[in-house]
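yo

u said u wanted the structure for the complex thing, so here. seqs first:
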Amino acid sequence: KQEVTQIPAALSVPEGENLVLNCSFTDSAIYNLQWFRQDPGKGLTSLLLIQSSQREQTSGRLNASLDKSSGRSTLYIAASQPGDSATYLCAVSGIQGAQKLVFGQGTRLTINP
Amino acid sequence: ETGVTQSPTHLIKTRGQQVTLRCSSQSGHNTVSWYQQALGQGPQFIFQYYREEENGRGNFPPRFSGLQFPNFSSELNVNALELDDSALYLCASSHPGQGLVGYTFGSGTRLTVV
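structre next:
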């Protein structure tokens, strides 16, 4: 059974700092890994998708890496801004049957002005 | 703007009642999944439909059921509501190339059972 863990559960940093969010998963047989952003009470916004054959993806100030063999992914946010404050969720999609997403519990990020 | 629309946005029901939540996916997105997200938790997979057939189910009882229609819309039905069913319900859709582009989520329906 796939399990996804995100560390830390919450993070508060001053504006302008670079930061790293961590995601680990127990079963390396994944199809892809996706990072999402969720604002309070809202739905999920996809940030980055990494295929199982890829090592990293970049979008603007965001960079996500994937090490499938060790079951780890990181989301790097450069030059953080108050608007980056949200909960960040990682999810992996399995290769067997329905490609359901298994989510971590998220990291609640606060960027202080 | 997301291509997945969910309705209603908020709903309050009484324990024991039945509820239907709706999702309208993007054209061509023939796979739709439903997730339940309790407060402070990550979303949990309920079930997935592909071409109007259920093709995967999470650890949810049979009183959670669904339908998918040819026009790429879908429904989540929950019977005999319990207090623990209070959560944000999310719909996610994808097209056959899901492995390349991932899932698109709607904004969710907040269900409160009292």
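The first strand of chain A starts at residue 4 and ends at 7. The CA atoms of residues 31 and 98 of chain A lie 11 Å apart.
cya
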